[in-house]
Design goal:
Number of strands: 8
Distance between the termini: 94 Å
CATH topology: Barwin-like endoglucanases
Largest sheet: 6 strands, mixed
Order of helices and strands: EEHEEEEHEE
CATH class: Mainly Beta
Structural class: mainly beta
Number of helices: 2
Helix content: under 10%
Shape: elongated
Length: 139
């Protein structure tokens, strides 16, 4: 942990190189665990300038951390059974300056954000409307 800032929006700011190595998406919800104090926090991740070696906690969560704390960042997601059984995590280990020194697991490509879509709605059964017969008028 390089910096804490209480008077800011709630987030964890991570060096761009680390963000890309881990495959995190900016604004993704991640879990930050302090290996020093044991505190666990769920925060949005934000990108800082690459090669800045920054890992900073912003907002009220900063009360639970201090510069120099060792932290772990994790991302979770939902997978279907078949995909979950094949999934391998990406693990990025860093040195004392927060530079990646070892990356294990599949390389994650940085995905472009997609437009949010509505979940599919159940199909409605077509009910054929019975046509009402008009009475014939006598001439």
């Amino acid at each position: 942990m390089t910096r804490v800032e209480v008077d800011a929006l709630d987030a964890v700011v991570v060096d761009g190189e680390l963000l890309d190595a881990a495959g995190f998406l900016e604004n993704e919800k991640i879990e930050l665990t302090s290996l020093t104090t044991g505190a666990r926090l769920a925060l949005a991740v934000r990108r800082s300038e690459p090669n800045g070696a920054e890992v900073a906690v912003l907002g009220p969560a900063a009360h639970l951390m201090k510069p120099g704390d060792l932290v772990s960042l994790s991302s979770f997601g939902w997978l279907k059974d078949k995909a979950a059984r094949k999934h391998q995590p990406t693990i990025v280990r860093v040195d004392e300056l927060n530079r990646p020194v070892e990356i294990t697991g599949p390389k994650r490509e940085r995905a472009e954000p997609t437009k949010a879509t509505e979940p599919p709605r159940p199909e409605k059964k077509d009910k054929k409307k019975k046509e009402k017969k008009q009475p014939k008028l006598a001439p």
